[in-house]
Structure formats: structure tokens, C-alpha cells
Specification:
It is a single chain. This protein has 348 residues and is an alpha/beta fold. It has eleven helices and 15 strands. It has two domains: 225 residues, NAD(P)-binding Rossmann-like Domain (Rossmann fold), CATH 3.40.50.720; 85 residues, UDP-galactose 4-epimerase, domain 1, CATH 3.90.25. It has a seven-stranded parallel beta sheet with strand order 3-2-1-4-5-6-11, with helices on both faces. Strands 8-15-14-13 form a four-stranded mixed beta sheet. A two-stranded parallel ribbon has the order 7-10. 50% of the residues are buried.
């Protein structure tokens, strides 16, 4: 595919979404400038795993998005035609420990990049990685682009500030700025701190005899689990438009953490049976009764939106977004990647 943009800036290129997006755009002939935190190493395991860490059209730069001057300098020097803002604080749990830091990373960083684009690359298209957490505990199910925004967590608030800033710069300054309201999207490149990777890595290690069980938090929380490469492809398409817009990216199907865990352990050849209730609930392996999953009350969040599931009809119509990877296949792909890493002694 040939894009209307040939130069793209991707903040957070070393993250799951940034790495997949960079790989796609590089494969389509786009020159990519990818940023990483100044405290992070220039090399990155995700870029290496995708085979693009040494790509000739990939430029890597350290950038603190909280530094407005540094944002302006980089945007002016690189002159991007598309800006994909994927960097920031991405963990809901961390936002309870540092709400101010989350607000600064996600809110102020977005404002700095929007201002940099307004001043140095006003004809570019800005695509923000927003989050379903901006909905909080919505009365409307499924959620769409018009659902009331009332985040429950500090993380959701920080993403709402970014989302609102994007709207403000679009309305006030006429920028082509779009928001990808992303529901949970997982992959083989998910960070190990996220519950889905925690589950698939644990299942792999248990299957290989390296561990015996794993502790989890709220098993009842329901999320709309999609496959990350399909979502970043939709974001790449969003930047093609002359004007900005908002799009829900979701599968439209909800599954609980319990269901995801069952799918992952089944993919590892260890089907589960669930016993007990509340904090006493546990999962044992069918056939031998060995405990595999227990509840740790310390992992329960102060607030956890019970049901987030999105209506992506608008994205299907305008972007051709059509997620095809279901929960079982998603869990299988993640499990197999973790099995391979553990066998090679290279867990990440």
C-alpha cells in the first residue's frame, strides 16, 4: 500500500503498537522516525524481534514528550507528514500509584506534540492513541464515539486530557488530528506487566515445568480483546484522511479475564476447572487437580470498570477495519511466542 504520507513520526516506537506500526510503514516504503524515552536504551527487543531494528529507513531518537522545546525541535528537523502519538504511561495500575505522573506523561506530552505540529508541521495528520478507559463505567453498552466520557481511574483521566486536547487543537487551529479510541488489543509483543502477557507467560512456564501457578487480581473484569497488528493498521489508515475524526477500534465482543486465562491454559494443553468464589476462587488443572491460578487481593484495583466493549461500526465503514483474530487464536499466538522465548532462555 502506498500512503499519502512518506514520512511518519512515531512516539513510543519501542512499545507494542509502535513496533508493529513501524514495521508496517517501513514495509510500505515510509521513512519512520521513532522516539523512545531518554532513559530507555536505543535498542529494543520488539524492534529486533520484528527484524526492523537496523532498517535503513528507521531513525531512532530519544525524546521526553514532557519537554516542549525538544518536541518542537524534533518535529521541525524531521518534518513529518504524519505523527502517531503512542508514547506515554500505559498501565492503569501504575496510575493509582502515581496519578500526577500519569497525567503529565499522557496529558502534557500530548499538548506539547500538538503544539510542535501546529508550529512546525501544520499540514501533517496527528493520530492519538486514546483508550477505552476514558469511558470509565459507562451506562451505555457497547460504547461508541458518542458515549459519555467519565473516567474512573487516574489513567482514564490522563487519557481523557490527551483526547480533549486533540479535540481542542483540531477545533481551535484547524489541525488534522484524529483519535483512535483503542479497546484492549494484545499480541505476542505485549509487555509482561499486562495481565494477558502475565497469563500466557505463566502458562508457558508452567507447561515447561518452570513454575507451578500464577496469582491474578479481578477475574470478573470484562474487556474487548483484539489483536494489536489489526489496530495499528487502522491507525495507519486514519492518517490518510485530510481531516481528523474519532474512531472506536474494538471487536464488539467482551470476555472476562477468567475466560482469557482459560483460553491460554487450554492452548498450553492444560484445561482449567474453576472452584470457589471471590478471593477464594482458584483454577485447577483438569485431570490432576493441581492449582494453577489463585487470587491475590493485593492485585485488586481500587476501581475497575466492569464492562468495556466497543462498537466499531464507524471504523468498519470508513477505515475498512475488520478484526479477524478471536480470543482463542489471540491466546494461542501469545502462548506460542512465550513458549518459544522460554525454551530459548530469552524471556522478555
Amino acid at each position: 500500500m502506498r500512503h499519502r504520507y512518506s514520512r511518519a513520526l512515531i512516539t513510543g516506537v519501542g512499545g507494542q503498537d509502535g513496533a508493529f506500526l513501524a514495521a508496517q510503514l517501513l514495509g510500505e516504503g515510509v521513512v519512520v522516525c521513532g522516539t523512545h524515552r531518554p532513559s530507555s536504551p536505543r535498542g529494543n527487543w520488539r524492534l529486533a524481534e520484528l527484524g526492523i531494528d537496523q532498517h535503513p529507513r528507521l531513525q531512532l531518537h530519544a525524546l521526553d514528550t514532557g519537554d516542549a522545546a525538544a518536541c518542537r525541535e524534533l518535529v521541525a528537523a524531521f518534518a513529518p507528514q504524519a505523527i502517531f502519538h503512542l508514547a506515554g504511561q500505559s498501565r492503569v495500575a501504575d496510575s493509582f500509584r502515581d496519578p500526577v505522573g500519569s497525567l503529565h506523561a499522557n496529558g502534557v506530552g500530548t499538548v506539547n506534540l500538538l503544539e510542535a505540529m501546529r508550529r512546525a508541521a501544520p499540514n501533517a495528520h496527528f493520530v492519538l492513541a486514546s483508550s477505552a478507559e476514558i469511558f470509565g463505567s459507562p451506562a451505555q453498552v457497547p460504547q461508541d464515539e458518542n458515549t459519555l466520557l467519565r473516567p474512573d481511574s487516574p489513567y482514564g483521566l490522563s487519557k481523557l486530557v490527551a483526547h480533549a486536547a486533540m479535540h481542542s487543537w483540531r477545533a481551535s487551529f484547524g489541525l488534522a488530528a484524529s483519535s483512535a479510541i483503542l479497546f484492549n488489543h494484545e499480541s505476542e509483543l505485549r509487555d509482561a506487566a499486562f495481565v494477558t502477557r502475565k497469563i500466557t507467560r505463566a502458562a508457558a512456564r508452567i507447561r515447561l515445568g518452570l513454575d507451578s501457578e500464577v496469582a491474578l487480581g479481578n477475574l470478573d473484569a470484562q474487556r474487548d480483546f483484539g489483536y494489536a497488528p489489526e489496530y495499528v493498521s487502522a491507525m495507519a489508515t486514519m492518517a490518510e484522511a485530510e481531516k481528523g475524526d474519532d474512531f472506536i477500534l474494538a471487536t464488539g465482543a467482551a470476555a472476562s479475564i477468567r475466560e482469557f486465562a482459560s483460553a491460554a491454559f487450554a492452548a498450553a494443553g492444560m484445561p482449567l476447572e474453576w472452584q470457589g468464589q471471590g478471593i477464594d476462587e482458584m483454577a485447577v488443572e483438569r485431570g490432576n487437580g493441581k492449582p494453577r491460578i489463585r487470587i491475590d487481593p493485593l492485585l485488586l484495583r481500587p476501581v475497575d470498570a466492569p464492562l468495556l466493549v466497543g462498537n466499531a461500526a464507524k471504523a468498519r465503514q470508513h477505515l475498512g477495519f475488520a478484526p479477524r483474530i478471536d480470543l482463542a487464536e489471540l491466546a494461542r499466538r501469545m502462548l506460542e511466542a512465550d513458549m518459544a522465548r522460554e525454551r530459548q532462555g530469552q524471556p522478555v
